[in-house]
Design a protein that fits this description.
With 816 residues, this protein is mainly α. Helix 12 packs antiparallel against helix 13. The chain is flat.
Length: 816
């Protein structure tokens, strides 16, 4: 029956496939039954509405006809594809047979697998049991291996701990060995580093493999703990004794023990802390002892006379003796740290052949990092103690007053330390370039207060020299007083280079403040340029300001030359402002002097306007009388107040101005003497006498005339006055005097029709002097040539005066 059903299904499948192919022929017809969305109820309802009750019968017949046609079509298609259908049925039968064969083979294979499984189950269970046994045996063997290893190490450790005895006894009676451990330890450790290495191996083995619960191991653990304590105690004792006695052997052995224990860094740290505590105790002893003596000194201070002085002297003696003890302790502690570094640089681990110093973080043979770290610690420790100790006013005053001495005591100890730690191939305990900085870091609170005190003292010196409200007529202080204070502070700090630089910075600030105050003190009133018979208050104040700032510049400038270059440059920088301030203070005074001198010289034009000349019977002009009187007043009332007095040997602002005024005075005299027109014989004699008078007056009151470049010109003026016009061409006057002065003088000998250059310009002699100052000599020569050219045009063909010809010749030739 199943086979029949399958054949029918296959047959109907082929039939319907054939029908689907044949129905393609009627694809174009409007057949509602062939639609995918055909609904029988809808079709019937629509058919009834179209045809009514009579149409039902017709529709049924039509449907029957359609069904009949379909059945006929099916029969036709089956007939046409009969062979293909039969072939398909045969293929299905063959496939069914193959499927049945596969089911039979699968059942046979399943039965074979069940038989194999039943045969292999027992051996597999037995193999699994064997695997568990092997695993358990392996675990047991591993534990036994670790136990034996620990027992071996422990046995070797006991040999070392028992002084080479008791190893056999340990194997026979372990309980007795455990009880008598203390007695056996008294024998002494044979090789402490080796014992430490064995103990370390036991600790590493315990961390690597847990043997908890094994009685033998647990019993060994008790003894091992006691042995470790013994090793560490003996190593600590040995290291302590070695550091106290500076024993290379003891310290090296102890450090190797700690290296084998894996505690080298902790041991070094403990030694650094111990040395630091020693320094802290020494600092406290120094300052606490001083504080105790302070109370006694106060009590003694209430007594009269010798008792108070005795108590004070006793306090100071104690203070400095304790300071020396502190310095010695500091030296010893720093040397102990360096000694520790030296031993670590020389001692090697016999197994790894590594230096112990290389086991520390950042440890190097050529750099003592331990010393650097210890220096930072003691700087913090001592500075903290000093900060607390300075709360006592007596200790504070003693430290600040004698800070240089404190640094000297400490530096002496550190110098000894540096010399004692010089070792070939190793770094010193303290580098020379860091010594000054270490001293200041150790005494940081004192150094800060000291610098503040220095700055306060220097500022007070500035306030003394230049009070805030300087009264009229009140003079500033002495520069020696201020410079003495500055030199004292610098000399007090000269023993320490870094401290000297700090004091130098304070000095530089003070100098800036000093010069600011000096500049604010300068008088700016209009009477600075007045030339009266006496020096007024404004002039006196500014002269004193000039003297002060220049005195400070000279004194400190020479003193700074003996200081280190870097420190001196910091303090010399503000000194550069001194000359500018001095210039500002006295420039108006010297400008007034120059204006007064020029005004008196220009009076010669009015005086010589009379062709008959003027004089006092001795041949000296009245203008010269006023000029010499002015020079005498300038010298007595002004120049004499400058310190030092203006002279060729002094490079001062006053000397520069006086030399300039002296040279300008002679120049104005020569220039205006050549401009005088008309110049009578009496005027010539008077001018010749005035040359001598001026040379003497300027040389005695202002500046040596012989040292001025214009002196030959002044001498040549006297020769020019009495040289014939025709002889000027070969005269030495043209070599010693500028050509323009000779030409100006020749105009005084020319006829009235030949105007002077300034007359042609429409300028008086005073304005022409200003014009000459503002123009070059070539421009002045050009003005002379234009004047001569104008005169030549005016004369036409008339004969020229001999003076004109000489003027024309000299002006056309090259100037000297």
């Amino acid at each position: 029956l199943p086979l029949r059903r399958r054949n029918l299904v296959a047959t109907w499948t082929c039939v319907w496939m054939a029908m689907a192919t044949s129905m393609d022929d009627v694809e174009g017809e409007d057949d509602p039954f062939s639609r995918d969305d055909f609904d029988a109820a809808t079709y019937v309802s629509q058919a009834l509405r179209r045809s009514g009750a009579d149409g039902i019968q017709r529709e049924r017949k039509r449907l029957e006809q359609v069904v009949k046609q379909a059945e006929e079509e099916v029969e036709r298609i089956v007939a046409e594809h009969r062979e293909a259908l039969l072939e398909r049925v045969r293929e299905v039968e063959e496939a069914e047979k193959e499927a049945q064969e596969l089911r039979r083979n699968a059942l046979a294979l399943q039965r074979s697998a069940q038989r194999a499984k039943a045969e292999l189950r027992a051996p597999c269970e037995k193999a699994a049991e064997h695997n568990r046994q092997v695993k358990h045996l392996g675990e047991t063997l591993e534990i036994l291996r670790w136990v034996m290893r620990r027992r071996t190490i422990c046995h070797n450790l006991k040999v070392q701990m028992h002084g080479g005895k008791g190893a056999e006894e340990d194997g026979e009676n372990e309980d007795a060995a455990s009880v008598n451990t203390t007695k056996k330890e008294s024998v002494g450790v044979v090789d402490l580093p080796k014992a430490a290495r064995l103990y370390r191996e036991l600790q590493l083995a315990r961390q690597e493999f847990d043997l908890g619960g094994i009685r033998v191991v647990e019993e060994d653990e008790k003894w091992t703990g006691q042995a470790g304590t013994t090793i560490k105690c003996q190593a600590e004792k040995m290291l302590q004794q070695g550091m106290d006695n500076l024993s290379l052997t003891d310290v090296g052995t102890a450090l190797l023990v700690y290296f084998n224990l894996g505690e080298l860094q902790d041991a070094v740290e403990a030694q650094l802390s111990r040395c630091n505590r020693t320094v802290a105790q020494a600092t406290s002893h120094w300052l606490d002892s001083s504080a105790a003596r302070t109370g006694e000194a106060v009590d003694n201070g209430g007594r009269a006379g010798a008792s108070a002085r005795e108590g004070k002297d006793q306090w100071h003696e104690t203070f400095w003796s304790q300071l020396q003890e502190f310095a010695n302790t500091l030296q010893e502690s720093m040397y102990a740290v360096w000694f520790l570094y030296m031993v670590m640089c020389r001692r090697k681990d016999p197994i790894s052949r590594l230096l112990l110093i290389e086991e520390l973080p950042g440890g190097k043979v050529n750099e003592c990092t331990l010393c650097l770290e210890f220096q930072d610690r003691i700087c913090t420790t001592v500075s903290t103690k000093l900060e607390k100790g300075m709360r006592s006013s007596k200790i504070r005053d003693a430290l600040l007053t004698n800070y240089a001495k404190v640094l000297q005591v400490l530096r002496s100890s550190l110098d000894k330390l540096q010399k004692s730690t010089r070792n070939k191939g190793l770094a010193t305990a303290l580098a020379a370039q860091r010594m000054d900085q270490i001293l200041l870091d150790i005494t940081k609170p004192v150094q800060t207060a000291y610098i503040a005190r220095v700055l306060s003292h220097l500022n007070e010196a500035v306030r003394v020299q230049f009070p805030q409200n300087l009264r009229p007529g009140q003079q500033v202080g002495s520069p020696q007083q201020f410079t003495g204070r500055v030199m004292h502070e610098i000399q007090a700090a000269s023993s320490n280079g870094v401290l000297l630089e700090m004091v130098g910075d304070s000095v530089a600030k003070t100098l800036h403040l000093l010069f600011e105050r000096a500049e604010m003190t300068i008088a700016t009133s209009a009477d600075l340029g007045d030339m009266e018979e006496t020096c007024n208050a404004a002039q006196s104040r500014n002269i004193y300001v000039c003297n002060f700032v220049q005195g400070v510049e000279f004194e400190l400038g020479r003193f700074f030359e003996g200081l280190p270059i870097q420190t001196a440059s910091r303090m010399q920088s503000p000194l550069q402002a001194a000359r500018g301030i001095a210039e500002i203070a006295v420039a108006p005074i010297f400008e007034g002097i120059m204006q007064a001198i020029e005004a008196r010289i220009l009076k010669m034009h009015t005086e010589f306007a009379n062709t008959s000349g003027s004089g006092d019977g001795e041949g000296r002009g009245q203008y010269m009388e006023g000029l010499l009187s002015l020079l005498q007043t300038v010298q007595s009332e002004l120049l004499s107040k400058f310190v030092p007095s203006p002279s060729p040997g002094q490079e001062t602002v006053a000397s520069h101005h006086v030399e300039r005024i002296a040279s300008r005075t002679l120049l104005l005299f020569v220039r205006n003497a050549t401009l005088v027109r008309p110049l009578s014989e009496t005027a010539r004699l008077t001018l010749a006498q005035d040359v001598a008078e001026l040379e003497l007056g300027v040389g005695s009151q202002l500046w040596p005339v012989e040292e001025m470049p214009i002196h030959p010109t002044l001498k040549a003026l006297k020769t020019l006055l009495f040289t014939e016009t025709s002889a000027l061409g070969g005269s030495s006057v043209l070599q010693d005097m500028p050509r323009i002065h000779v030409l100006h003088h020749l105009f005084s000998r020319a006829p009235f029709e030949l105007q002077s250059p300034y007359a042609r310009m429409g300028l008086p002699a005073s304005k022409y002097n200003t014009w000459l100052d503002e123009h070059t000599e070539d421009e002045a020569m050009e003005a002379v040539r234009e004047t001569l050219s104008a005169y030549s045009s005016l004369q036409g063909g008339m004969a020229f005066d001999p003076v004109f010809l000489v003027l024309q010749k000299l002006s056309s030739s090259s100037s000297n």
